[in-house]
Design brief:
By secondary structure, this protein is α/β, with parallel strands linked by helices. The protein is built from ten helices and ten strands. It has two domains: about 170 residues, P-loop containing nucleotide triphosphate hydrolases (Rossmann fold, 3-Layer(aba) Sandwich); about 60 residues, no CATH class. A hairpin with a 2-residue loop joins strand 9 and strand 10. Helix 3 packs across helix 4 and helix 3 runs parallel beside helix 5.
């Protein structure tokens, strides 16, 4: 594996606020992978994602993005690195006063000098890729939940980032709509070559799109590997996450052990 094939790396990273939520996290994500960050509520997966996206400096350790230390870079250097990434938030964060097209075009207007006619064409093509052709002039408030998620993914990907970070992209959606989000993310990798880091707890989505997963819990990394490997893990918390063992059954198991 060549160094330039590693796009995201955590080296002994601890994240949190006044106290660490996660400690000693070591993760390596290669070009072209879809890697999921897993764990129960409060395990720190969204906090770790905030650190990976430049929003929260780690308490300890180093985050390397595209071969450069993210938080040891200058302000300008960090901004340039982050311009090569995209982020889709759990709440789609679309601006209600703008049309769908205006929302998607926003990064191009703010961060590039691309001529307006080319921006219009880029937005049209990206909306087609996420299945929203014809919705250019529609306000986000008129979209369904799944359509809003896809519009947010179009905006997050409009600069053709090297890495796309997604926080619970299919949360709150029914299985059919969630599957369209999965297909959208897979199309981003196939068509655009984007590496994707996704926070999720949806097992169907995880099995459908992730090459590897990192399971977080008890303040650290519990397991990492392919989905098949994690499903066979001997760690009780990892096994229960994948097999969704009810708490009553867990109590019975513990009483018998």
């Amino acid at each position: 594996m060549r160094d330039h094939d590693v796009l995201v790396e955590c080296r002994g990273v601890s994240v949190g606020y006044s106290e660490p939520i996660l400690e000693n996290v070591d993760i390596t994500i290669e070009r072209g992978e879809i890697v999921a960050l897993l764990g129960g509520s409060g395990c720190g997966k969204s906090t770790l994602l905030r650190s990976l996206t430049g929003l929260l400096p780690p308490l300890e350790g180093e985050i390397v993005l595209l071969g450069k230390s993210l938080y040891d870079s200058s302000t300008d250097g960090r901004a340039k690195l982050l311009c090569r990434t995209g982020t889709a938030f759990q709440q789609d964060a679309l601006f209600g006063a703008m049309t769908v097209a205006e929302n998607v075009a926003l990064p191009l207007h703010e961060l590039t000098r691309t001529p307006g006619r080319i921006i219009d064409e880029m937005v049209r093509m990206r909306l087609a890729l996420v299945g929203l052709s014809g919705y250019e002039d529609v306000p986000p408030t008129s979209l369904s939940g799944g359509q809003r998620k896809r519009a947010a993914l179009a905006r997050a990907s409009i600069l053709d980032p090297d890495v796309l970070f997604c926080d619970e992209p299919s949360a709150g959606l029914d299985p059919v709509v969630a599957a369209t989000i999965d297909e959208t993310l897979k199309s981003f990798r196939k068509v655009l070559g984007i590496t994707i880091v996704i926070v999720t707890h949806e097992l169907e989505s995880l099995r459908a799109i992730a090459d590897r997963a990192v399971m977080l819990g008890r303040g650290s990394v519990l397991a990492k590997g392919t989905i098949d490997e994690l499903e066979q893990s001997r760690d009780e918390d990892v096994f229960n996450f994948f097999h969704r063992v009810p708490e009553v059954a867990l109590q019975d198991q513990r009483s018998q052990s």
